Amino acid sequence: MSEGDIYTILSDMIWTVLLASGPILILALGVGLVIAFFQALTQIQEMTLTFVPKIAAIFVGLVASLPFAYGTLERLSSHVFDLIASGAP
Questions:
Q1: How many domains does the chain have?
Q2: Which whole-number Å values give the CA distances from 12 to 18, 71, 79, 80, 85, in the listed order?
Q3: Which domain holds residue 53?
Q4: Of 6, 29, 73, 86, which sees the most CB atoms within 10 A?
Q5: Predicted TM-score of the model (pTM)
């Protein structure tokens, strides 16, 4: 296995992690911005107002995007296991 093959596998792994975690991170960013905007408009500085809706939205988003994340991770793992079984790329 050459350095180029290892680089390809590592870059595939990084892209897979970004694709699998991307929807949840974007959702958390959006909810956080909406809550921050609401707090700036109303000047309500309650600490639980920032955490509870964000945690609830992340949980719902995680349940909704779990099949996509599983499929993405399954594709990477089957590719890597195929490389292991064949001996080299």
A1: 1
A2: 10, 14, 10, 10, 18
A3: 3-86
A4: 73
A5: 0.78
